[in-house]
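Team,

Forwarding the record for the chain on the shared tracking sheet. I've put the sequence and predicted structure together so nobody has to dig through attachments.
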Amino acid sequence: MGLNFNIDVTGAKDKSLSKLLLSSARQFLREYGEVLDLVLDSSARSLSVEVLPVGEDDPIRVTVTGYGLSTDGSGRGYLTFEKMTFSRQWLTLLAQRILSDKRLPLPSGTPMGLLQTLL
């Protein structure tokens, strides 16, 4: 009788990376609200973040599907995506209008090479 060690390497990597990204998201979004949760699913290329906005009683969830990373000519990093949805329909509609190029600028100093390797 042998032991079966079925290790979900991708799941473990996603959990570790989610914790790292949660810490970064908390710093990046601290003036807008408290980041409560962040879940990365690299196999589905999705990222979900739950934020309690300043002055609000209920959190908002944003889900990004089909994510990727890119840089422009100046080296500025962007999170690219196929679809971004919010738990509030009006925010989804606003994002479709404002982020019509389907990319979100990342903070300066974001380690793009490292992120591209991990994601």
